[in-house]
Design a protein that fits this description.
Strands 27, 28, 29, 30, 31, 32, 33, 34, 35, 36 and 39 form an eleven-stranded mixed beta sheet that branches. The chain is globular, with a radius of gyration of 30 Å. Strand 23 and strand 24 form a beta hairpin. Helix 14 packs antiparallel against helix 15. The protein has 18 helices and 39 strands. By secondary structure, it is α+β, with helices and mostly antiparallel strands.
Length: 765
Amino acid sequence: MRRREKKREEERRREKKREEKRRKEKGKNGLEINFSMNMRSYLVWSSTPHWVFILLHLFTITNKYSSQVTMFCETCIDFFRTLGEASTESEFKSEDTFPITGLFEHHTTDDAFKRALDTGCILCKKLRENLSYEALDLDGDKLAAFRLVCSWYQTGPKSGFDVVCSVDGFTKTSHISLMPVNPPEDRLLLPDYHETTNTGTDACFALANHWLKTCLSSHQGCKHLRPSSLKAWTPSRLIRIRGVDDLVLCLRQMGSIPIGVEYATLSHCWGKIPATQRLVLTSKNVSSWTRGMPDLKIMKTFDHAIIICRKLGLEYIWIDSLCILEDSRDDWYQEASLMSTVYKYSKFTITATAAIDDTVGCFFDRDLNICLPTRVEFLKNQICFLGASKQSMTKSNIFLDDSRSTLLRGRYDIQEWSTWTQRISNAPVSKRSWVLQERLLSPRVLHFSDRQLFWECAKLQASESLPFGMPEDANAHFKTLSPCRYQGQYFTDLDFEGETLLQKHRHLEYASLTWKSAIITYTKGKLTKSSDKLAAISAIARELQPLMRCRYLAGLWESALVFRLARYSYTDSYPSMMYRAPSWSWASIDGSIMFHPWSTLESFDPLIEILKVVTDLVGGDEFGQVKGGHLKLLGQAIDFEIILDMAEHREIIHINGQPTILCLTKDDKNMGIGVSTKKFCCLPLYLNLSFPQGFSSLILERVDIDNEVYRRVGTLSTSYFLPEKIVTAFREDPILSIIGDIEKSKDGSLAFKRGSADLREVVIV
């Protein structure tokens, strides 16, 4: 009790000191403050040689400036004052600076946070914007628990604010950074650019043009020459922009597309627009469109893409739904096989990043205080808040204790740290599976999000906030445009004759890992047409084939087939309702796919022999759709049962009455529901004895009683053995002991000895 009373007394004393400080500050600044604090939240300081991070969660409080500019609430002002008056990094750890064990007190109720938003606190608005991506309903009923806790951290050379917001038990971290302004790379000094309240203005096009010209003139890694065999290649159809509202469809077969033409491509979401209302090319309107196309204004995405081309000086554009015959499967198969060439030889791709369908468009109104950085200047005795644009560079100041030597000096931009993830990676268009290959193969991508413009090429990832480049660790590290090219050239354009054996091996390893990463990313997306599962990634496969040097089999490469058969899913996954691929292919499943983490093919010891692989193609394209296929293997097929424990509603795997340590993953999450006992077959695939040791096998269900014909329904595996337990596991586990034995030598190395189980030929369909 005494400790609690003492702690309460200390908190009252600190609160009294803060109130006195606020009253003094009010007198200095001439601010009218409406302060409210019913809850607790905390902030923590971090700094690096180049960055100052504020990783925030939730804030609450309100303030009204007597001047015209309302910029920050009182709580945020207190925080900035603390930053401004700190003379050393160690002060941010002290209880005097952050009274509660190094934590900075902030808003502690949702009401206070809402009032801060209503009065226009820029920092709180930026935080609310981040939180809108999560399941937090700040506009609904009063929240039961609203808490913000921030703590100081240091990892290697970096330190920062690590802030965790808790709302009714749900936690979320928002990242807001103070980034020093480097005059040579000051976004506000770019020619012809200034912040505007819409993303479709001439100022925004000036920035896009700056990125494009810089890339074309100085990015050696983005320059690629067409091979001589493709010098005269053009898309089958292109839309020509002759003037405002004057568009025609040009056909290669009619000779109306110039050789070596420069064109843009469009990446977009069709959305849920009814088929009868979509604007698409068909065999019925193709002739009339060559004389003049219909008005595109009803489809804002198309209309805005045309405007962007005109502003950036391009006369031609390729849009899939307007350049591929929607009512001809033959034309679709033909054009799908050319998709990689269409995108990689375009000048750039326009992406309607935030548009959920084609009626939304590329241009959006925006609040500059939320969407773009706010500039702040730390001086010796004051902090100047300069606003979010050139037009709002009027100062609002808070005064500091000028007797102290301050740590922060100069101008900084307050901005979101995870902008790329929120606006690009999590955008509506990025949830569309087709987009992965469109981004991977395009030499340049211009993203129009609902908040700002973004640029992406092999050399640069940038935004309006950071037009000279995103920091490597600002969630923009996924270099989407490099895996399918080498030194500026696409793999399909290179001659690999004369390679050494080592070079071939390295290229195979690189291509295999690239494909694995592509599948993991691709399967997180959605398809309007389920039948497009293989077609929507075929362009990437086509580009990687020169390095793989083997057959492509319904989404898997023959040279790595054993190791990629063991894919699995942690999320809900189900076999496709319509046939798309054999059950052994990832393409047969709806849901995100994962692979075990081992990095190199040398890590694996295969436990099966592949005897035969057959795929039946829908058309003549080996990278396209399939209508059938089977895989014949020789291995140790082990029969086992999955027993449903009716009392605890959990599944127990039994081999001859004994449980196994292996983990079960299902291709169909509903497999076995309502069935007390079901028999399956376990087919060991491979063993990994290098660190981290692991094992994987397929679960098969018999589909032909008279023959050894099965379909895949899941996996039994472990991705990690404790080094001291692996020998014991292979001796005692009912499945592993049948497969073989692990022997450990005196030097600690491991060797596998195959067991006595009979080998059986099995066919998987």
